[in-house]
Amino acid sequence: xxxxxxxxxxxxxxxxxxxxxxxxxxxxxxxxxxxxxxxxxxxxxxxxxxxxxxxxxxxxxxxxxxxxxxxxxxxxxxxxxxxxxxxxxxxxxxxxxxxxxxxxxxxxxxxxxxxxxxxxxxxxxxxxxxxxxxxxxxxxxxxxxxxxxxxxxxxxxxxxxxxxxxxxxxxxxxxxxxxxxxxxxxxxxxxxxxxxxxxxxxxxxxxxxxxxxxxxxxxxxxxxxxxxxxxxxxxxxxxxxxxxxxxxxxxxxxxxxxx
Length: 259
Fold this sequence. Notes:
This protein has helices at about 15, 20-25, 65-75, 95-100, 140-150, 200-220, 230-245, and strands at about 1-5, 30-35, 50, 60, 85-95, 105-110, 130, 185, 190. The chain contains seven helices and nine strands.
């Protein structure tokens, strides 16, 4: 896979993408990465990429011309036309399903906004517009890194163990089961006996139950899409009632309402 970014701060990506799993995946040729500086597509002495918004208002907007020129120029290079991703609060919420879809693209180009955002006309260049959540960041570089990390982990060979990604949170609609390592007893806190038993069937059953319990406790909104059996739904219901958490339908039955 070819991964590229377009940003006014192209130097922020390499320290992360050259390290750990991302760095090893690059070294193995699983993906290649290049960061482009948006200012290379400006034509004035100050390399200006922003201007005041029409109609007034706070802050500055990124101008459309450098973005259009850059995306068109970058897209014309190489064998594959990139799948272009922008970031905006208006975009689709990024999740594992989107990461899986993007992992099948040959080439990805992430366009990172700054300031108060981009001229609206630039978004017509996007194949995807994504949002990480309901909060504001100073630029698109961090969201781009998050999406790149999530996508690269799904590429064959990136994690070393082809099954690793299949066991992680959201892979089956549930949060990942609880995990433990040595020592088996730390300060009186003991690892569940089943994990020390060597009984792989019992371990698998415990892990499934643990995943359901953790999801019911922390992310009950995920349960509806997890394909639970009737017995598993009953377990989830008991956990939610016990912990007094919001149900899978997003409603808290204990709420009394009010003004």
